[in-house]
Automatic annotation (TrEMBL):
One Pfam family, short name: Pyridox_ox_2
Species assigned in the record: Sinomonas flava
Protein name from the UniProt record: Nitroimidazol reductase NimA, pyridoxamine 5'-phosphate oxidase superfamily
Superkingdom of origin: Bacteria
C-alpha cells in the first residue's frame, strides 16, 4: 500500500460548477472552433468545425457530399467547445444540443457569407451552410480549490 494519504478523496482539491446559459453563449461566441457531434449511418461521428454564433443559432460550413450533409436534417446533434489550462488544472466546456438543418434561404445565405471571417479548415469546397437550432445549453467549469 502507498504511503500517500488520499483520505480526502481523489479530485477533492478541485471545484466545479455549472455555467449560466449567458456565460455559455459568451464562451461559445468567443471560441469559433468546436466539435460537431451527430449520427451517420448508425454511428456517432464527431468532426471539428469552425462556426459562428448569430441570432441565437450556430452556423458552420461543410461539403455537400460529406457525411454531415448526408445526415441532415437531424435532431439530437451537438456542438461542444472547451478550453483547458493544464498547468493550473483548470478549464471549461460548453455543450449546445439541438437540431441541425441545411440553410437554403438565399437572403440568409448572403448574410451568413458576410459574417464568416475564416475559411473552413477541411480541404475541398465547403459551401453548404448548416444551422444548429439550440434546444439545450450547458456548461461546466473546473479549477483547483484555494
Amino acid at each position: 500500500m502507498s504511503d500517500l494519504n488520499v483520505s480526502y478523496g481523489l479530485g477533492a482539491r478541485h471545484e466545479d460548477h455549472e455555467l449560466a446559459e449567458e456565460r455559455c453563449w459568451a464562451l461559445l461566441g468567443a471560441s469559433g472552433v468546436g466539435r460537431f457531434g451527430f449520427v451517420h449511418e448508425g454511428r456517432v461521428a464527431v468532426y471539428p468545425v469552425g462556426y459562428i454564433v448569430l441570432h441565437g443559432s450556430i452556423f458552420f460550413r461543410t461539403s455537400r457530399e460529406g457525411s454531415i450533409a448526408k445526415s441532415l436534417p437531424q435532431a439530437g446533434v451537438s456542438i461542444q467547445t472547451d478550453s483547458t489550462q493544464p498547468s493550473v488544472q483548470a478549464g471549461w466546456s460548453v455543450l449546445i444540443s439541438g437540431e441541425a438543418e441545411v440553410v437554403e434561404d438565399s437572403e440568409e445565405l448572403t448574410r451568413l457569407h458576410g459574417h464568416m471571417e475564416n475559411e473552413p479548415w477541411a480541404g475541398g469546397i465547403r459551401d453548404l451552410f448548416v444551422r444548429l437550432v439550440p434546444q439545450h445549453v450547458s456548461g461546466r467549469q473546473v479549477y483547483l480549490a484555494k
